[in-house]
Please model this.
Amino acid sequence: MGESMKDYEKELEASYREMEAREQQFEALNDEEQAQWEELMQMKNDNSEIDVKIKEVVKSGVVAYVNEVRGFIPASKLSLGYVENLDEFLGRHIKVRILDIDPEDKKLVLSAKEILREQEQAEREKVMSEMKPGMVVSGVVETLKPYGAFVRLDNGLSGLVHISQISNRRLKTPNEVLSVGDQVTAKLTQIKDGKLSLSIRALNDVMEENEVEEKVELPKSEELTTSLGSLFANIKLD
Model:
């Protein structure tokens, strides 16, 4: 059975409504402005990364221009963390995406946060791919919990040392032997669901075994022969 216009009636109606809404958005703009805002709308739809230069610092954010259109970047969208001094961004080039756009009111809101978060995640995945169970790692104790200690490793990742893996002796709480800020070395025992399990105890066990082996090391063959020779020399036969 052939398809008719009636089969697409709902889709066509929605398309016309969208076109009317766009025309209303741009009707107050001249041709040049309309072209600018249409390009910005396309950038938003494409999720484009845009390089901008911070031109002004205003209340609760900064200003940058895209295609000569003034855009506002809220302080909360400038960085992954809290920005205490917005003036530090003045004159800097950063990459942003269009967060919100309103051609009718000529409002453009930009954000760098999503791009930074994606970059951070990509870097974390790269570093994580280099981690292998059995590796010896070092870092700083950043948090103590009743069940163990979280260690911030030198490569930026965090791992958990369970309380049972801190020491050879039984501990009631991790702070019996550890404090926040302590430098520690541990063995990476497991990687599961993006989480690292560490063991200080396992590394200490290896070190103790090595110490024992050194203490009971047998003399070299020459030394052994000399010792036996001295022993027999002191034995008098009847």
User: Anything to note?
Assistant: The helical segments are 9-26, 31-45, 113-129, 200-215, 221-233. The longest helix spans residues 9-26.
